[in-house]
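Listing S7. Sequence submitted for prediction.
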Amino acid sequence: MKQIRLFDKMVSWILVRLRMNKMEKRIQDKLSEIENTFGVKILYACETGSRAWGFPSPDSDYDVRMIYRHDPDWYLSLNEKKDTIEFMSEDGELDITGWDIKKCLKLMWKSNGALLERVQSPVVYREEKGIAALLKEYSEKCFAPIAAMNHYLGMAKNTFADVDGKEEIKLKKLFYALRASLACKWIVEKDAVPPIVFETMVNELDFDTNLKARIKELVVLKSGKTESYIHLAETALNEFILTELTRAAEVFESLRGRKEKEVDLDALFIQIVKGY
């Protein structure tokens, strides 16, 4: 019986790897098509969502996010031009969204939560000569705890509403609420950009070891369940989330603004458009 279970696990792992390899080729082909169709250069393309956070389900879709640039002359216009590219495959498996570098730097100045995560992604499909490290460096200079907290606290409240007070929940909704609440905790306790990798927050933040162990058990469980999997409520984790959200709301107004008041993003923009 044990050998049968081991064989089943091996077959499942092989099937997952084959699907991932097939999808990666599909992603690379689509990225090349986007460059040709829109006349842009992709500077950076990465995975976001549960596959980057570290708690995907077998049927999780692929959320690819790009940062791209146009030729320098494209920016010499009095007219505002479209600065996003979006693609969704018909089967719903592949979701690609891209932002022009100018838009990205404007959002970086505002300490945009999505961008802060994007430049940390552990799953990278395209990268031009160290641009992720460069963008990460500047995002940390622009980091404003109060802006990031506004992003994660709002996200945590919205996702927690999907599980709070319910006897049965979608497990993925619990993870969304947990991730956002741990990001809030990270901002309060470490005064720094929250890591995109969920496990890093679980390991490095100080809270009950029994809760940490339960979270890790649930990560393993989710890895074998579909996105629609229904799970019994986790009362202790709900209480933990509520405690962290309450604390985050209480300290919100006392959080500081941007780490460095003077950050020359104009120079960075010119460097990227001309040098990459």
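Caption to Listing S7: primary sequence and predicted structure tokens for the chain studied. Residues 55 and 175 are 8 Å apart (CA to CA). The longest strand covers residues 41-48.
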